[in-house]
């Protein structure tokens, strides 16, 4: 068994989940509901990247910028057009969840209408290096670096900057934030934009690594939730640890499953078995953050 | 009033009501690459039949539904055609999964399904077989061909990587059975064809160091399998894959195609060498649609022709009669896919396969025949 | 003297590193009206919550009607005959005021799925009785005009009143009340205490009440515990306690800004 | 029978089956506030139990009851760890449970034929297809009526009051003596049994099931029915079930008559999404408002307030 | 004109329901006004309507000679209105220290640090818990934090909804003393309170709200003496 490779792959898997989960928890922490449309915003990011590189012929960094921007704008619009009006009308957590699923449907099938449901692949061939027992491709390295940078950057923003604190205040008590003079709408707009933008980036990474399909995001939504919940919503150290744990569990899990003669499709169950165990014994996730009553 | 018996209109002078012929083809999904070309094959046959006077003077009205390369969608399409459009005969569904989903319903509702391409061995002796006929050879035959390639090359450590569907598992089971005692299966992976990320599965396979990987899948998942196999370095083994892979799309992706050119070979049902009918059909098809007919185009054409001929002979209302008539016709029937002889179930008794490989020509890749295998 | 109804011995409750209740002991006898006072943050609410099983204690014993209840969940403790009203009301905001009341009654046959569905006669009579009782309480609390309003659409004080009303519906043997008069208009506050007093006399009910309004404590309680920094530092009859220098030091305070602790 | 008529009756059977499942979600979500996003799992358990039992020779009416029982048992098993979770976590965990179960059935082919799926011999050996359809319709309608009646009784009883209380503040409910774990588990058992019954009817009607018949989209469809019809209203969710089914079918047939510029499935799903959002925004209580609990107590209180009337 | 805040003809409520029916009130520059009344008489609603949290059907609100009717609350706060809600008045998931920082969100001057230090001096129990999440505070501690938070904005008018509820005698007196201090330094106050005796001893003028209308208004001391009011609203009969 090539454990070095498995470890490295875990880091790759985990990095993707990290970006996606960190983006998810931004809105999760603030708007207080799991945004299921996060999945389709990821898919959208991937397709925008595809469109920019394959159909417009621009270089990949441009594609990433475009994915961030367009996904961000869609996130912004979804907040303005759907989630803000709903919240203003006093929608419950479950209503918001259902609305986000509905938005996911709209996005997924709009993407499907434009680009079709058959998977598309990006034509970029990434150089692969064999370092000792390790096989490493350039895109994997870029992914890991990006994930760590995003994680640290966001953590810094939330704890150190004015807007970051405003975000947390709004998350905690929007009404009171308003009566402290915080323009909560602006705070939410920024958060939605950044969250969706990052989702777009995560989606494009996923697209680069595998392929593009309107189901791209949905396929990694459940592990993303697992990471977010395991890490504790809104905790970045927690998220990083959780991403690594889930990445590891999946990669080791597949090997063990194959060894045991079980279907490797059980892989998706692994993060959740861990998650449920953790939630039952430690409902706040890995994070120390503790929520008062 | 679809599928009404035209004998109620004995004068024959006024135009008879149309006969609805259904088709469930996978226009979207993992087989979208061949689905629409198969639909064209049916259209060609129907067009020719209508030009020759239709069925007993009635025009054939073809209704194509999208099976989406998905068992449930395929089943829904069958139900829709059978009820809303009152079709007694449906060409399709294409994939084994959809056929297995629809069979029971078809039998209960007395609708005949004729599939050009559903190859799973599990279909062979289903209780509802009276209402299902296929013009593609069962994978017991293709599996034999694939196993033979392994044995001939003397591979000892075999990995099996198939999509976890009735089709993929059918091939996996057949091949595994045939290889028993001749080679060791070191790893079996059945993957979800809709998930499209197989890095860790392939990694697990790679760590077993197989000499050869047996693969069965459809074009969409195959592209990703090959692409990611390249990434994890599974070109350390040779690959033998199935007919669901051989379409243009798999070689449109540079990385997948490069990988295929390097280590992949596969099998595919074809018409026997030098069959004149096949050449004629290919020419007609090309003239009509300006492209070459691909895999299963010949079988879909034969399926449609047989269906129309049987309806002509026994009427258009009784699926059981139509079914029996097709079996009767299918004794040394000269089809464009070769001579068709059905066994008691409605499976072909013989078939020809080609072994293919991928070669690079300039910046692009194409398929090339290595040899023919008769089963 | 017989065993007291409620006996708390050396109760301890930590929040992380902070020891909110630090070995507190107290007793409430049957038919007694007991007060609990202390500076803000001294652990009163925590003590009550731990007794009631809302925040499991970390040490000590709680005996209620002869049974150890320190490991029990609130609903089990409720079933034994205790009741509780929260400092910050926790109502069922989308249910009507009436439903908020009726649901809180004890031992309803309809609580069981089986009875609710199939033995309807069993709970039907009960409902009539409960509705009448609920209406009587609502009138007492000045809430009867809101009988069919949603609980969440009431003012802060009204919610507080409903919280009290709900706890009374259960007719518990012992009722834990956390600042029942906070946010309640003084006129009404007095009426409520008078009613509690009546329940004590007529039905032999017992009360353990946290309250900052000293005048109410003085007029109604039989016994007062003073808590400071998680410990009971003083107890006695209200008049005595009020005049005790310890009480003066920890609760009234010499200098208001000092908050000497 | 006329194919169009057959199609219509067919649609009615589906409406009935899904209305039963929608009623079960209404018990869980509409009344009790449990975000059960794993509805399809119990539907699937019911269907597979039925298929396996019938295959083993159990007479179908008994098999149907047993399937409901088995689904209910699973509901209990899953709920025990799950209902201790926050509602958003519960949603995600139950959603995943559905997926894991599907993978399980797919992977463990010794149990229920894996990807091959199972054929279910028709229960009504009517010999005549139209008659079979009518019998199926009657069966589904009967069971739906029973489920509806059951839910109405439940909703307007003290138990219904407890369900709603749990939805709004379970800690407070616990503090007034309602064992929240017990009640939630009971609700999950009821809901799962009904969903299982729906699954059994489904299997019995279509005659073939495979893991692919139980994708998460089914859960979403059922949620739509409830959200559209009105959570907390039993009539509402049945109307919701009918509306969603008719809409689904409508868009499929539509393309035979109009030349749609977009793919009908895409159109259907995009419209689905839009309708949901519009409903949540402008009529969050659904087409039918949640009915107030109507018991003797309510009426007695009204008389108290207004002694002159009645 | 030396009124910093005037509200005239306020009709306010929730949804379509009118709760407050034509109430006018004014607050002098540096004034100190109390609002009392039975539960559910519309006091909180009145205050919320001034800030844009409850629905304002009719009426006009002028703050510092500017018409602020219908302005969103983050704007009014920036202009110098501070608010302590009756319930839910702290950021539970922020620490005590962060709560105070958020209170000063609208300020951009350099004095924030020293003001936080000043708050800690005023409320030593808060300093001891400055790294705690506000959600974990006791009822009284939370109340103190809420007031301190609102004071951090250096408002010119502070609206307080039952600041003394849940406070011990000592703490209540302490807070009143602090409020008196900032009032003397120029911050005008409107306080809703049920501890009527205490608040009437503190405020200069008072309004009695009953059933959404003004039942009485005048000098606090006079109302405290008013036999009718003592009996009906203050619970001080005799
Ligand atoms: N969110 C709401 N929706 C509908 N009605 C409400 C809402 N909040 C309060 N009310 C109603 O408005 C009336 C006045 O409420 P308000 O909160 O202004 O009273 P208050 O004078 O502050 O009382 P308290 O002293 O109890 O806090 C109450 O009768 C209440 O039923
Ligand atoms: N969940 C919690 N986590 C951490 N500390 C807590 C928690 N709840 C309460 N505390 C702390 O425990 C102490 C006691 O709190 P408690 O609520 O019991 O006080 P109290 O006596 O009821 O005060 P008050 O009269 O102000 O309501 C306080 O210092 C508070 O900060
Ligand atoms: C079109 C083919 C690739 C279908 C395949 N033979 C199947 O049985 O599923
Ligand atoms: Mg307290
Ligand atoms: Mg108020």
From TrEMBL, chain A:
The portions of this protein that span the membrane are: 6-28, 58-79, 91-108, 138-158, 187-208, 220-246, 266-283
Task: Name the principal localization, coarsely classed.
Answer: membrane
Give the family from UniProt: Belongs to the binding-protein-dependent transport system permease family. LivHM subfamily.
Q: How does it sit in the membrane?
A: Multi-pass membrane protein
What species does this protein belong to? Dehalogenimonas alkenigignens
Gene Ontology MF, one: transmembrane transporter activity
In terms of PANTHER family, this protein maps to: AMINO ACID ABC TRANSPORTER PERMEASE PROTEIN, BRANCHED-CHAIN AMINO ACID TRANSPORT SYSTEM PERMEASE PROTEIN LIVH
Which UniProt keywords are listed? Amino-acid transport, Cell membrane, Membrane, Transmembrane, Transmembrane helix, Transport
Compartmental location: Cell membrane
Q: What is this protein called?
A: Neutral amino acid ABC transporter membrane protein
- Electron transport in keyword set: no
Q: Mention one GO biological process in which this protein takes part, according to its record.
A: amino acid transport
- Any Gene Ontology CC annotation: plasma membrane
Automatic annotation (TrEMBL), chain C:
Keywords (A to Z) from UniProt: ATP-binding, Nucleotide-binding, Transport
Q: Which residues form the signal peptide?
A: none
Question: What are the recorded GO MF terms, alphabetically?
Answer: ATP binding; ATP hydrolysis activity
Among Pfam families, the record links this protein to: ABC_tran
Q: Enumerate the spans annotated as ABC transporter domain.
A: 6-254
Q: Does the keyword Transport apply?
A: yes
Q: Which SMART domains match?
A: AAA
| InterPro entries, A to Z | AAA+_ATPase, ABC_AA/LPS_Transport, ABC_transporter-like_ATP-bd, ABC_transporter-like_CS, P-loop_NTPase
A GO CC term assigned to this protein in UniProt: plasma membrane
Could you name the domain of life of the organism this protein comes from? Answer: Bacteria
Question: Under which name does UniProt file this protein?
Answer: Amino acid/amide ABC transporter ATP-binding protein 1, HAAT family
The reply to whether NADP figures as a keyword in the UniProt entry is: no
UniProtKB/TrEMBL annotation, chain D:
Q: Which InterPro entries match?
A: ABC_transp_permease, LivM-like
Q: Which GO-annotated molecular functions does the record name? A: branched-chain amino acid transmembrane transporter activity
- Name its cellular compartments: Cell membrane
* Mode of membrane association: Multi-pass membrane protein
Q: Where are the transmembrane segments?
A: 6-25, 37-56, 62-82, 89-105, 125-154, 187-210, 222-244, 265-282
Q: Name one GO cellular component term.
A: plasma membrane
Assign the protein's first listed, main location to one coarse class.
Answer: membrane
Q: Which domain of life is it from?
A: Bacteria
Q: Which UniProt keywords are listed?
A: Cell membrane, Membrane, Transmembrane, Transmembrane helix
Protein name (record) = Amino acid/amide ABC transporter membrane protein 2, HAAT family
UniProtKB/TrEMBL annotation, chain E:
- Record InterPro entries: AAA+_ATPase, ABC_transporter-like_ATP-bd, ABC_transporter-like_CS, BCAA_Transport_ATP-bd_LivF, P-loop_NTPase
Q: Identify the keywords attached in UniProt to this record, alphabetized.
A: Amino-acid transport, ATP-binding, Nucleotide-binding, Transport
Q: Which GO terms describe its biological process?
A: L-amino acid transport
- Can you tell which superkingdom this protein's organism belongs to? Bacteria
Task: Kindly give the Pfam families that the UniProt entry links to this protein.
Answer: ABC_tran (PF00005)
Q: Where is the ABC transporter domain?
A: 5-236
GO function term, MF aspect, one: ATP binding
Q: By its UniProt entry, which CDD domains does this protein fall under? A: ABC_TM1139_LivF_branched (cd03224)
Tell me which family the UniProt entry assigns to this protein: Belongs to the ABC transporter superfamily.
The name on file for this protein is: ABC-type branched-chain amino acid transport system, ATPase component
Species for this entry: Dehalogenimonas alkenigignens
- State the taxonomy lineage: Bacteria, Bacillati, Chloroflexota, Dehalococcoidia, Dehalococcoidales
